[in-house]
Write a structure and sequence with these properties.
Number of strands: 14
Distance between the termini: 34 Å
Radius of gyration: 25 Å
Strand order of the largest sheet: 6-7-8-3-9-10
Strand content: 25-35%
């Protein structure tokens, strides 16, 4: 039996075309391993196959080709059992409109076979954990967007899942609510070692929460690594801003350095892009000093995960 939380080999999924529309090959040979207790984030442009992959892993959708295990269970023949061991929450929450917070949690506790005493205990715990205690008697359709998201997450923990699948859990939320949700999810992961599979378009969320990030494009993982390694793996022109006096005097010298392009922002600042900090930075500083500039401050802008996203999304397919 696999010791990983998730193990996939060669997963394919195609949606048949409707009418004259061609079929859509949503997943094209997915290989993936996720350790128990890890937080794995899936990034990718719209239509990359993120939701399809999560739906297959959560036992909500059949795969067409390939093999895989979730919680040690082979996917194709154990979808019902897998659904008992995992749970799912989407940023586009859709729960019974007229159920209160308490009724929602009690209802889903019943679906998972929890006894009445345990349902009450879980409802009390989850309402407090997601700061829903004062809203417990309010129907879902009267909750704010942020409270609906919190309730959807509380519902997804009713069965103490071994793996939690989250599809853009903070989409459309204000920063304060997003921060609360991230803190609660990180605490859950740390305290209970719950494996979390996350899709998001929030780059700060992906970087702060994830152990590893997989970039999915056109149904394939084209890169899987930590956020730091992803940023190191893609070549960028780093930007440096230098402040001081007499900055413009060295512009001609700077323009003559290979791999460097510079612009005078004002009398006190000059901005340069360089293809390699190691090879170019000392040449830039040398040119400024030789031209009589007085350097007072240096700021280097690092590559961001958003930069990686754009760069990988623009890459041509290998085939």
């Amino acid at each position: 039996m696999p010791q990983t939380a998730i193990q996939l080999q060669g997963i394919h999924k195609t949606y048949p075309g409707k009418g004259s529309s061609p079929s859509v090959h949503a997943l094209r040979g997915i290989d993936l391993e996720v350790d128990p207790g890890a937080v794995f984030c899936i990034l990718g442009p719209n239509g990359a196959g993120k939701t399809t992959l999560i739906s297959i892993l959560a036992g909500l959708l059949y795969l067409d080709e390939g093999s895989g295990y979730v919680c040690g269970l082979e996917i194709s023949g154990n979808r019902r059992r897998i659904r008992e061991l995992v749970n799912f929450a989407s940023g586009h929450s859709n729960l019974p409109d007229n159920f209160t917070v308490d009724e929602t949690l009690n209802y889903f506790g019943m679906l998972y076979g929890l006894a009445k005493k345990k349902r009450l205990k879980k409802t009390n715990y989850l309402a407090e954990f997601f700061e829903l205690s004062e809203y417990r008697k309010i129907p879902f359709n009267q909750l704010s967007t942020g409270l609906k998201q919190r309730l959807a997450l509380a519902k997804s923990l009713i069965n103490d899942p071994r793996i939690l699948f989250l599809d853009e859990p903070t989409i459309g939320l204000d920063p304060k609510v997003s921060l609360l949700i991230r803190e609660r999810l990180q605490k859950l992961n740390q305290d209970r070692q719950t494996t979390i599979i996350l899709t998001t378009h929030q780059m700060d969320e992906a970087e702060q929460m994830s152990d590893r990030i997989g970039f999915l494009k056109d149904g394939r993982f084209i890169r899987i690594a930590s956020a730091a390694d992803l940023k190191r793996s893609v070549q960028f022109q780093e930007r440096i801003t230098i402040s001081g006096r007499n900055m413009g005097a060295a512009l001609d010298r700077l323009q003559g350095i290979a791999g460097v392009s510079c612009t005078v922002l004002n009398e006190q600042q000059i901005s340069c892009r360089m293809d390699s900090r190691e090879r170019r930075l000392h040449l830039i500083l040398q040119a400024l000093l030789q031209a009589g500039a007085m350097i007072e401050d240096i700021a280097i802008a690092q590559a961001t995960l958003g930069d990686v996203f754009v760069k990988l999304a623009e890459q041509s397919d290998p085939d």
